[in-house]
Amino acid sequence: MALDRILLGHFRNHRETSLDGTAPFNLLVGQNGAGKTNVLEALSFLAPGRGLRRAALADVAAQDGPGGFAVSADLTTPSGPVRLGTGTAPERPGRRIVQVNRAETPAVRLGEWLSLGWLTPAMDRLFMEGAGARRRFLDRLVLAIEPGHARHAAQLENALRERNRLLAEPFEPDPAWLDAIEAQLAEAGAAVAAARHRLIEALSGALAQWPDQPFARPDLAYAAGGPVDRAALVAALREGRRRDRAAQRTLTGPHRDDLVVTMAGKQQRAAECSTGEQKAMLIAITLAHAGLLDDDRPALLLLDEVAAHLDPLRREALFDRLRAGRAQVWLTGTELAPFSGILDEAAVWRVSGGHVERAWPAGAQPRE
Ligand SMILES: Nc1ncnc2c1ncn2[C@@H]1O[C@H](COP(=O)(O)OP(=O)(O)OP(=O)(O)O)[C@@H](O)[C@H]1O
Asked: Which of 56, 70, 167, 346 has its CA at a distance of 20 to 30 angstroms from the CA of residue 12?
């Protein structure tokens, strides 16, 4: 299995939770507030970034715990098991520690081991929010396929921060210094833009090959926030210095990109579609993306409260598609009924009050 022997220590309402004996489908079932999404969030910290809630690290540590948290899991790879771990120490609750086989490593490198995707109820607002949320969404999809994207995105962010800082100074910035920063910005920016563009092309291709899927079909387009070519971006940045100085921020570049989604057939912008249509398009994108994952790295797909909202036909289509994919899937729900189509192939985990117990189907208890 992609991930197994999962441990959560002082992670939100989980004091000490272990999940052992995972399956291709894993169902986390329990009442509202039991701690199901918290398990998904813990798993999402096995990727670079801030996890599926984008929470501050200090908020993640259990309120009644020692102040830090820990998440670890065994990952099955072609070259044997690898132990991934992450968390914070009580004395520095804002600093994330990442370990691979117990050796500390930068968080961006987690992407080299595991492809991770998720769909949560909070993402229902993706098409209504500002472009930043869609860029983050897009970047996560890219990252699952191209782990080097995390490094380029971090370089872009650093160069942007530095350029904006220089432009905000009361005196005229040193042009040679600006030249150097803009060269870095354009180098990383062109790589980020190209990767986003490749992803949208690949997703569009995958969606076109799956015309009879029962979810509303999205058309995807890349709206570039500036020139995508490195040399053209360097020129645009240099030309825009005076304007950007007045605005006190950089007004051109991939940090202003957007993902434009339209519902195919209707030709209606996603933001104007119904909530159900928007959700269906997100599911279609998520499933198309899962089909793009290569065999190089194990993959994980976290689907929070997705199944219960679908009618039986779409639920079965979702399960069929997931079954055909290669990602280990984690689904949450308040009851088992929506999962009847996959119960005999799933590991069922009962979640209650921050505890998780493996539930065995009647007659299938393991022998001690
Ligand atoms: N830092 C924290 N320390 C302790 N408990 C926390 C912390 N953060 C959140 N919680 C608790 O975790 C619980 C929510 O867990 P979670 O979001 O995983 O629920 P859920 O099972 O997914 O519920 P639902 O079905 O309503 O989505 C809440 O009771 C909340 O108070």
From this structure: 346
